[in-house]
Amino acid sequence: MLKISNYSNLILKDISFILKENENLIILGSNGAGKSTLAKVLSNLIENQSVELFDKNISTLEDKKRVELINYVPPRFEIFDEYITVYEFLELSFIKSIKKEKINEVLKLLGIESIKNRVCVDLSSGEKQLLLLASSLIHNAKITIFDELTANMDISRVKEVYTLFKMDYLKQKIIITHNLDLAFHLKYKVLYLQNGVIKFFGGCEEFFLEENLSRFYKNSLKVVDNHLVVNL
Ligand SMILES: Nc1ncnc2c1ncn2[C@@H]1O[C@H](COP(=O)(O)OP(=O)(O)OP(=O)(O)O)[C@@H](O)[C@H]1O
To answer: What positions does the domain ABC transporter occupy (predicted)?
Structure first.
């Protein structure tokens, strides 16, 4: 269970909501709305006392315990070690003891065995995002927040990620995305942010009603054959 109560900072305004155990969430909103900032608050990268994780205030949790409960996966892969390989990076993703077979299982699941001995800094941006995904699967926190995971992925990879999310390989997920069709089909609960304010928090079906689409996206979207597409 995740709960945030009356949180405000320079960007976010009076944020409160509860996500029940095993409920997944999509966070939507335009550029600069505050989505990444909210994710950093929920994972305590922006320190606060307004978030409760599984009935414990996040400010009271030791780092080791907190990372077991929540993992923020950033939109860009950044690393200072120029020489570390994919395999070595994944070894560092375990919270407890390293299980080599788990690394091979995840590499196979994502179809990225061929890059396992490559140096991380040389990967393409899409490959780096797959590495972040692999790392989060190994980390396997109770709640994983993905910040624009699919932004640099090709379409077939986006489809694979969608399938993976549907498989419940990870426990509880919070997904920040600009891919509305992905959000529409995942059918998770939706939180819509506008200028740091929650304008919608509720079911997917309700959010994607025509009246809400025109309220939040004006005439920039249309539904074609049960898919949300840009109304060019
Ligand atoms: N460390 C910071 N210091 C000052 N302003 C910041 C900082 N981080 C973010 N902001 C500002 O806060 C606002 C919200 O940023 P945030 O990254 O949370 O938006 P977002 O909804 O994730 O946007 P996008 O969809 O473009 O990624 C932006 O105007 C941004 O410039």
So the answer is: 2-220
